[in-house]
């Protein structure tokens, strides 16, 4: 019976959840596959590809995997009303809600206390799905919703009577928000942040003696010009600016910017130093912090260092913290990934890689109950995570199985293979439901 004091979404059939019968999973050893020479548990041989209805399969996994999965990623049918090649994407609204609710309840049980669920969806059912997720996981365990840009407003999509839809959404829910730990993730900036236009002349002296000068003036002088104006006139604006950026990236320890801090967002000690720096113009004040980097203030502004925007492995470029707007992952060209054709259903390997980077460590269990073309398993394998994929359609054998065999054999050069340094190894077991 529903709680009369709680706000909830209701639909026909909600009070009659499906109670799946207990079925066992049987391994088909003729389809299980391991790389040659795999003998160690470190080779991650226990990955599982399950050809079955996902509700029955999830129920069968409870005995072994309850509270064991670190990350669940699912890309369920969006219920757009289309008849797609590999699955039905149009069922009655109430039935879709029931189908999702029954599976989400089981996925919640399988997640570790510090695990998280990622559900990708478009705007057809997104709002309804979020309410269902609130009921199952609790609103306090909602992390956020990511907006993913999947395409551009070009071609036939531009001929539209409404604004062009180019986005999908990823709802992120932790099983226990307090226990889930986000692994900070950074993305490349497309251009230089010209707010970093000041050079700290003597960074190795104490902050009380710090002196500053315009970055452009310094670069102009090193090139033999009297001023930035003369350098730009002689070299051209773009070539000179490129020299400035190159210097800044190479000497990020001494390049800074000033930022007006939000008073309500800083500590009492920081507010006091901000006030002092306003009254004592030109002097640099420092707030020492044990758990975080020190903070510096001058003329009421905070001093930010370019070094904090440069990360190893970024080839000298700038990075910034990951936000909930993901427009930097290319979707064009993913048709070749994995060597399988899966129109309108395949997700970029880089997308799954980002999700696993921010939520898992090598060796963690990852589960995808709507395997589709097998992207989640392929990415998890290359990133040395343990994985479980469930797919009811025949493409489990025609698409997913050969794709994962190529990954194990090191014969899939696409997607994130080069970035992860993947050359093959490990294996997986193939399961069906027992009669």
The CATH class of the largest domain is identified as Alpha Beta
How many domains make up the 3D coordinates?
2
Q: In the CATH scheme, what's the topology name of the largest domain?
A: Rossmann fold
Please identify the structural class as seen in this structure.
Answer: alpha/beta
Extract low-pLDDT stretches.
none
CATH H-level name of the largest domain... which superfamily? Vaccinia Virus protein VP39
Q: Average pLDDT value?
A: 91
* Beta-strand percentage range: 15-25%
* Major sheet size, sense and barrel closure: 11 strands, mixed
What is the rounded distance between the termini?
A: 34 Å
Which range best describes the helical content: under 10%, 10-25%, 25-40%, 40-55%, 55-70% or over 70%?
25-40%
What Rg do the Cα atoms give?
A: 27 Å
CATH architecture of the largest domain: 3-Layer(aba) Sandwich
Instruction: Give the number of helices.
Output: 11
Overall shape: it is elongated
């Amino acid at each position: 019976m529903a709680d009369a004091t709680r706000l909830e979404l209701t639909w026909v059939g909600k009070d009659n959840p499906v109670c799946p019968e207990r079925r066992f999973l049987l391994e088909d050893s003729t389809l299980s596959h391991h790389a040659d020479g795999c003998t160690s548990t470190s080779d991650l041989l226990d990955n599982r590809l399950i050809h079955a209805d996902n509700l029955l399969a999830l129920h069968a996994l409870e005995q072994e995997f309850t509270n064991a999965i670190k990350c669940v990623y699912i890309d369920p049918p969006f219920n757009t009303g289309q008849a797609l090649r590999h699955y039905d994407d149009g069922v009655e609204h109430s039935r879709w809600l029931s189908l999702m609710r029954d599976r989400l309840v089981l996925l919640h049980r399988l997640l570790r206390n510090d695990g998280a669920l990622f559900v990708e969806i478009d705007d057809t059912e997104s709002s309804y799905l979020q309410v269902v997720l609130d009921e199952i996981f609790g609103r306090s365990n909602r992390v956020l919703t990511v907006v993913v840009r999947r395409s551009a407003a070009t071609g036939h999509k531009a001929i539209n009577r409404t604004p062009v839809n180019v986005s999908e959404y990823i709802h992120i829910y932790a099983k226990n928000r307090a226990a889930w730990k986000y692994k900070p993730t950074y993305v490349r900036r497309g251009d230089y942040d010209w707010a970093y236009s000041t050079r700290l002349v003597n960074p190795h002296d104490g902050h009380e003696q710090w002196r500053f000068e315009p970055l452009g003036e310094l670069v102009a002088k090193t090139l033999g010009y009297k001023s930035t104006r003369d350098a730009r006139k002689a070299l051209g604006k773009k070539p000179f600016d490129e020299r400035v950026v190159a210097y800044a990236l190479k000497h990020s320890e001494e390049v800074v910017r000033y930022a007006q801090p939000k008073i309500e967002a800083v500590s009492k000690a920081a507010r006091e130093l901000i006030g002092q720096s306003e009254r004592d113009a030109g002097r640099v004040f420092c707030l020492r912090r044990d758990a975080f980097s020190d903070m510096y203030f001058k003329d009421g502004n905070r001093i930010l260092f370019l070094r904090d925007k440069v990360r190893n492995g970024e080839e000298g470029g700038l990075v910034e913290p990951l936000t909930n707007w993901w427009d930097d992952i290319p979707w064009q060209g993913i048709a070749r990934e994995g060597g399988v054709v899966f129109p309108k259903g395949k997700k970029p390997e880089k997308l799954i890689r980002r999700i696993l980077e921010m939520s898992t460590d090598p060796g963690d269990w990852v589960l995808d109950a709507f395997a589709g073309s097998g992207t989640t398993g392929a990415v998890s394998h290359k990133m040395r995570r343990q994985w479980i994929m469930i797919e009811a359609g025949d493409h489990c054998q025609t698409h997913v199985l050969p794709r994962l065999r190529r990954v194990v054999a090191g014969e899939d050069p696409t997607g994130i293979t080069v970035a992860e340094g993947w050359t093959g190894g490990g294996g997986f077991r193939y399961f069906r439901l027992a009669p």
